[in-house]
Specification:
The chain has one domain (5-125). 29% of the residues lie in helices and 16% in strands. It starts with 14 loop residues before the first strand and ends in an 18-residue tail after the last helix. The radius of gyration is 15 Å and the shape is globular. The chain is of the alpha+beta class and 143 residues long.
Length: 143
């Protein structure tokens, strides 16, 4: 993803997406790797909509993308415990890599209303790892 010139002083010029998982998540109906499918779908969005995904951004999907119908959005964060320069060396020209974390619609609403930092604080308080986990329980109650 390329970062627009108007925010270039806030973000590196080229950002890549990554997902960390405890296990493979295979779609029950199509047998496809769910994580790869989400990354592929997210990868085209910035080019189609002329946007980018940076640290602390969220993105809402039109429908659930996995077994938990509450998971309808994503949170983008800097991966924990990773040497960024080494990670970026795996992708030519990458200056930053952000991890993709599924979040519930109530978590995204919370981030939109209060900002991403309070949501991140909830994740830390509840010990929610920065993983791609479509089965995770929400840290924000809906309603």
């Amino acid at each position: 993803m390329r970062v627009p010139a108007e925010v270039a002083r806030l973000y590196p010029a080229k950002i890549e997406l990554i997902a960390y998982c405890r296990e493979a998540y295979i779609g029950a109906q199509d047998g496809q790797d769910m994580v790869s499918a989400c990354l592929q779908a997210l990868a085209v969005v910035p080019f189609e909509m002329d946007i980018f995904f940076g640290p602390m951004h969220t993105a809402a999907m039109e429908e659930s993308f996995g077994p938990n119908p509450e998971m309808t959005a994503f949170f983008f964060a800097v991966p924990d415990g990773v040497e960024m320069r080494r990670l970026c060396s795996c992708t030519p020209a990458a200056e930053l890599v952000v991890s993709v974390m599924p979040i519930t619609s109530s978590e995204r609403a919370y981030a939109v209303e209060r900002g991403p930092e309070p949501l991140l604080d909830l994740f830390v308080k509840q010990r929610v790892p920065n993983f791609f986990d479509p089965f995770r329980k929400s840290v924000v109650q809906s309603g």
